[in-house]
């Protein structure tokens, strides 16, 4: 059951080589994902002289995010589990699949990876500004919040079904990273027209930090975290029968 398996962990995890290796994997994967994803947004702005995002442009951005996340998850899955997202880490925490202390290391690594990716983008594009996630004209804040909850729920539920569930053939191999990349691309194709389709607080944090624009930034934290929480609780409670429920990942190595 969720919450029953939640574990704080031990202080030693903060400095254990295994945890630090996982943190490094999350840092690199998040950097790769955000560099490509935010890079596609910057490239579109350059190619169109800052014009508004068109349907074809949104399609390109969504595909780029999906492919980049597919790779980012695949290259870190065997090391850290390939979270690449604080909402995924939180969703797995409430299900007892990662300890609190280890999750904090993941969060720090993910946020640093996103921030450095955006700083690198600003450097290599001769100072072009990053584009923080923002609500479209007429989109209410509550609407964006609910949207982020729903699409992040879909993402974290997909993570559980393909990468966490021990009955899934995708927990080792290519199926899980591919499914995760595809759901993100699909969600961006829809939600991108309303609030940018974040699903990932780190993906929103990096551009906002570099651009120093945190307008409505809380939406891209609260929404994804609630979505991740709901996905973790529902999958662990309803989709994993107690006799088949997997054991929490040990906090020691």
UniProtKB/TrEMBL annotation:
It is a multi-pass membrane protein. It comes from the Eukaryota. The chain crosses the membrane at residues 24-45, 57-79, 100-121, 141-160, 172-194, 218-238. It is found in: Endomembrane system. Gene3D superfamilies: Glycerol uptake facilitator protein. InterPro entries: Aquaporin-like (IPR023271), Aquaporin_transptr (IPR034294), MIP (IPR000425), MIP_CS (IPR022357). GO terms for cellular component: cytoplasm; endomembrane system; membrane. One of its GO terms (molecular function) is water channel activity. The keyword Transport applies. The keyword Membrane applies. Keywords: Membrane, Repeat, Transmembrane, Transmembrane helix, Transport. GO terms for biological process: one-carbon compound transport. Belongs to the MIP/aquaporin (TC 1.A.8) family. TIP (TC 1.A.8.10) subfamily. PANTHER family: AQUAPORIN-8. NCBIfam families: MIP. This is Uncharacterized protein. It comes from Adiantum capillus-veneris (Maidenhair fern).
